[in-house]
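== Protein entry: sequence and backbone fold ==
=== Local backbone shapes as whole numbers ===
==== Amino acids and backbone structure tokens ====
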Amino acid sequence: IVAIDYTGYLANGQIFDANHAAGKSSALQFTLGTGSVIPGLDDMVSRMEVGQKVQAIIPPELAYGEKGVCLDDGECLIKPGATLVYDILLKKSSIPPP
């Protein structure tokens, strides 16, 4: 289980998500390798050490691919084929007991 602070940007610099956004008040916690976050984020965090801060450029095939993140009305929050940029700080990392 890991805990990160993050800000996600589109290639044009527009923020599309952040753990400090309205309605969110704590680090994002997830278990590595379970598919609970996009593959590029999972991969980058798995290589980080606690306290390390990185900026990751994630290609579409490791993000939302050719589907993007689109609403039923066709409006896309993340357009198909989008490259994403994340600022990531690894706050905690723990390996659960067997």
